[in-house]
Amino acid sequence: MKAILAVSDFGTLFQALTERGYRIMGPVLRDGAIAYDELSSADDLPRGWTDEQDGGTYRVKVRQDAALFGYSVGPHSWKKFLLPPVMRLWRSERRNGGFEVRGEPQDTQKYAFLAVRSCDLHAIDTQDRVFLQGPYTDPVYKARREKAFIIAVNCGQAGGTCFCVSMGTGPKATSGFDLALTEVLEGEQHYFLVEDGTERGAEILSELPCGRATVEEEQAAEAVVARAAAQMGRVMDTSGIKELLYRNYEHPRWENVANRCLTCANCTNVCPTCFCTTIEDVTDLKGQQAERWRRWDSCFTMEFSYIHGGSIRASAKSRYRQWMTHKLATWIDQFGTSGCVGCGRCITWCPVGIDITEEVRAIRASEQTAIRNSPERGEGA
Ligand code: SF4
Ligand code: SF4
């Protein structure tokens, strides 16, 4: 069903979700960025704000209208709720000459994620393959994922580093949501086209003060998404990308990017599909208690590839090459899909503005130049 919800009635969505016990997580303006945190009402949304993004550049600024969702993705992604950055797995205490091990209680809270963009729906689907569909299931991720109610928002404007159209992941949400919203602002009109994607989404939609969408309203919503699709800040040519990178492990471009890369790990932290974690065991000084913690890790650290006496990927070149070839090539062999959804976060939040689309373009262009200049081709021409 496609329905129309007036912006003045947007609060009823919050009411329907909180009555069902959901805590609502969504965009808030915080520390000069659009972050994701708990919302108590629609008043917490960054109404009338937008963002500007480019390589190594991010800034929020005031819009000329009162759009509730007039910005693209910021530094946070939904993985911080589904895969907490730091969490204790268990603790043990010395008792009666032995150890008593206690697992952590499961988080029973239900979360509703508001304003999940299409690229991030694909990122959640990618992490589902890792944590739910492989030989081992992650119980923490599973418990949070199964209870999550997802409200997608179709993008009305693309960010300066977005390339979801290239990756086939946006800007319109096509699956993986309970409800999907398109925000339409036309002159004095300001409303949402709401679509249900699941039964529980339809149940909530039936309680909202909505009217059935007219053909004109549906067309207006389609025009919003088409505008975003035409505004992509970046493009990535993905044709034969896996083979391209496999052919070019020794390309001089890796040295070039290593001279710029600070190995700071920002790109992996902001990436919505990166899933690596490490385990740390800690004990108290008396040796009475021990705890095991899990925290996000990054393939840009030396410790990540440490094996009996040394790190396999000691150079910045090997670490950047590993990250990019995993995202765009080996991930496809591993999970059947690209590890990149084109959200652009790694470009925006790289302190030196390294751009994954530019790195692919440089390798592809030099290979094409080499083919054009090869003697065999010259003879045949
Ligand atoms: S690699 Fe970069 S553009 Fe691709 S999903 Fe990760 S952060 Fe987004
Ligand atoms: S590519 Fe950029 S964000 Fe990633 S580790 Fe290097 S400097 Fe940091």
What can be said about this structure in brief?
With 381 residues, the chain is α+β, with helices and mostly antiparallel strands.
Task: Walk me through the structure.
The chain has 381 residues and is of the alpha+beta class. The protein is built from 14 helices and 16 strands. The mean pLDDT is 95. Bound molecules: iron/sulfur cluster (2 copies). The site of one iron/sulfur cluster has 12 residues, from helix 10.
Write the layout of secondary structure elements.
Blueprint: E1 2-6, H1 11-19, E2 22-30, E3 33-39, E4 49-54, E5 57-62, H2 79-82, E6 86-95, E7 98-103, E8 110-116, H3 118-131, H4 139-147, E9 149-153, H5 164-167, E10 179-186, E11 189-196, H6 199-207, E12 211-212, H7 215-230, H8 241-247, H9 253-258, H10 266-270, E13 277-283, E14 289-296, E15 306-307, E16 310-311, H11 316-335, H12 345-348, H13 356-373, H14 375-380
Helix pairs in contact: 8-11
The protein binds iron/sulfur cluster (2 copies).
One iron/sulfur cluster is lined by residues 270-273, 327, 340-346, 356.
